């Protein structure tokens, strides 16, 4: 555990207690008659009292109050006060662990995701303060969690979240200039992608932008695995398969980077949502992921595990001359950069007011409920709408997709338009709306400033895979794709998205009005502003 804290936060145990407790004082119960800081023993007693109070009425045989020395601390985060929305429910399960973990919530944590990570039920997670039922838990809020997990994979953090996501940390990074200065194989590489010839730098940028994965990480993976950035391919097979995926029919830099980005996303968002709990190795070996890790570290652990057996995986990430050391040699200290931009998902995050993406009076069909924002690794954050115009399937519609809010166009190519709502011109910062399947003809150019309801482009089948004319719309905040229903609901024109049991299913709800997603466009899917 000490190794985890040292490698993750660069501090000693003494500094942990010196910094953690004052930083969290505003989140602990007030004490009258003095301003002295709460001690670690008092903190443990507070958590003991919360645990005992919450379990009152439970038969004594099922309760095991813990001694004050029976806790372990995982992680350290700065507290951010936020209004709570739920009182902690009573435990209903027989709780007899040998110890409890005292876990400071990390940015992006939710109760629903933490419970499976720690292999407990949500109502077994306790805190001196109420825990939000669905929203983000305030970073740094202390949680008491039964310590029931056995052996896990390494607890040592690898990279901060902002170094994995195409986040504010990557804003202003000169990808082309870096590749040219390095002078390796990728600087002279080119490849045909979707009918056009792209340079190595253009391929890395396209994959980074499409998937919202940090281009620095893609370059460090490319250098560590293949030697492409500063030199020549390490082995002959690293020309066709630079990152080692070796999937038939998917050779070349673009395909290999796209697979890598997808797996990084699966690790990142799977951990965020509490649905990825184990590492899977090529021959079937599995390792439980340590519950105190951040999403960025899990993303790397997951993607590297798919290509390596446990011993090789350990060496690649934690051994001599590992991937993280390569990344630091290339780009400097990632934790220092992270300190300037994190948390990516602050507690209390609220979506700006948005309107539906078409004009008042027009009839559109809600053809797709929450589904992947971009690829199979991203969360169910996208909604689909099709104009009701009677035009042939996959025709470029005469209807216009319009801006749900004012902003500036920061990306416009390959059927995609990204609208930056904070107006700083960076897709990596703040709120961004991403539209897919907008036809090239009529689509606005990069740099165009728009007001709400301004026409952006025509829905079509261009870009990605589509079986009928429509627009696909998703949201990002600080580079992170957001789920459509929680913890920050997707609301447009007062209509709130809810996810169904299956992808593409779901509803838009506004008061007592309900519109159900259906690709066939029946009456129940029609929505009008």
Number of strands: 22
Number of DSSP helical runs: 13
What distance separates the N and C termini? 55 Å
The quaternary state of the protein chains shown equals: single chain
Shape: globular
Q: Return the domain count.
A: 3
The stretches of 5 or more residues where confidence is low (pLDDT under 50) are 1-73, 75-97
Radius of gyration: 24 Å
Secondary structure: helix percent:
25-40%
Q: Provide the β-strand percentage band.
A: 15-25%
Question: Helices and strands: which structural class?
Answer: alpha+beta
Biggest sheet, in brief?
9 strands, antiparallel
What's the pLDDT, averaged over the residues? Answer: 85
Name a few traits of the molecule:
26% helix, 529 residues, single chain, 9-stranded antiparallel beta sheet, 19% strand, Glucose Permease (Domain IIA), disordered N terminus, alpha+beta, globular
In short:
This protein is α+β, with helices and mostly antiparallel strands and 529 residues long. It has helices at residues 2-9, 13-24, 40-54, 111-118, 175-182, 200-211, 215-226, 237-240, 253-273, 295-305, 310-318, 323-331, 334-341, and strands spanning 71-73, 100-104, 142-146, 190-193, 196-199, 278-280, 286-288, 363-372, 380-387, 401-402, 407-413, 416-420, 431-436, 449-450, 455-457, 471-477, 480-481, 491-492, 495-499, 506-510, 513-516, 526-528.
């Amino acid at each position: 555990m000490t190794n985890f804290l040292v490698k993750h936060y660069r501090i000693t145990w003494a500094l942990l207690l010196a910094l953690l407790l004052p930083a969290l004082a505003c989140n602990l119960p007030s004490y009258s008659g003095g301003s002295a800081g709460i001690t670690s023993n008092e903190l443990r007693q507070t958590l003991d009292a919360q645990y005992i109070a919450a379990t009152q009425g439970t038969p004594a045989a099922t309760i095991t109050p813990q001694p004050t020395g029976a806790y372990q601390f995982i992680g350290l985060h700065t507290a951010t006060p936020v209004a709570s929305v739920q009182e902690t429910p009573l435990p209903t399960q027989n709780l007899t662990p040998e110890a409890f973990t005292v876990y400071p919530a990390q940015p992006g944590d939710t109760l629903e995701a933490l419970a499976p990570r720690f292999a407990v039920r949500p109502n077994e997670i306790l805190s001196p303060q109420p825990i939000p039922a669905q929203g983000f838990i305030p970073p740094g809020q202390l949680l008491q969690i039964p310590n029931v997990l056995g052996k896990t994979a390494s607890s040592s953090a690898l990279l901060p979240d902002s170094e994995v996501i195409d986040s504010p940390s990557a804003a202003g990074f000169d990808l082309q200039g870096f590749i040219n200065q390095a002078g390796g194989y990728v600087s002279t590489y080119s490849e045909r992608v979707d009918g056009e010839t792209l340079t190595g730098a253009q391929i890395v940028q396209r994959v980074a932008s499409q998937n919202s994965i940090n281009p620095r990480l893609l370059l460090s993976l490319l250098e560590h695995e293949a030697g492409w950035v500063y030199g020549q391919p390490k082995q002959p097979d690293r020309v066709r398969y630079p990152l080692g995926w070796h999937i038939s029919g998917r050779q070349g830099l673009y395909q290999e980077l796209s697979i890598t980005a997808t797996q990084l996303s699966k690790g990142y968002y799977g951990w965020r949502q509490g649905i990825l709990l184990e590492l899977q190795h090529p021959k079937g070996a599995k390792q439980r992921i340590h519950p105190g890790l951040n999403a960025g570290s899990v993303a790397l652990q997951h993607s590297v595990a798919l290509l390596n057996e446990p011993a090789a995986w350990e060496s690649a990430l934690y051994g001599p001359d590992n991937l993280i050391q390569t990344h630091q040699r290339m780009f400097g200290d990632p934790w220092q950069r992270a300190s300037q931009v994190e948390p990516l998902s602050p507690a209390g995050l609220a979506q700006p007011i948005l309107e539906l993406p078409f004009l008042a009076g027009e009839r559109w069909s809600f053809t797709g409920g929450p589904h992947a924002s971009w690829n199979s690794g991203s969360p169910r954050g996208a909604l689909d709408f099709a104009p009701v115009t009677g035009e042939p399937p996959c025709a470029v519609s005469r209807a216009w997709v319009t801006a749900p809010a004012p902003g500036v166009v920061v990306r416009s190519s390959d059927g995609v338009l990204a609208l930056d709502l904070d107006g700083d011109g960076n897709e990596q910062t703040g709120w961004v709306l991403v539209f897919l399947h907008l036809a090239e003809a009529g689509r606005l150019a990069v740099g165009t400033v728009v007001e709400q309801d301004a026409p952006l482009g025509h829905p079509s089948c261009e870009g990605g895979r589509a079986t009928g004319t429509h627009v696909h719309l998703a949201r990002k905040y600080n580079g992170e794709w957001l789920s459509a229903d929680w913890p920050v609901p997707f609301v447009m024109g007062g209509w709130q998205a809810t996810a169904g049991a299956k992808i593409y299913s779901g509803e838009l709800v506004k008061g007592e009005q309900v519109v159900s997603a259906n690709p066939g466009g029946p009456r129940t899917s029609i929505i009008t502003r």
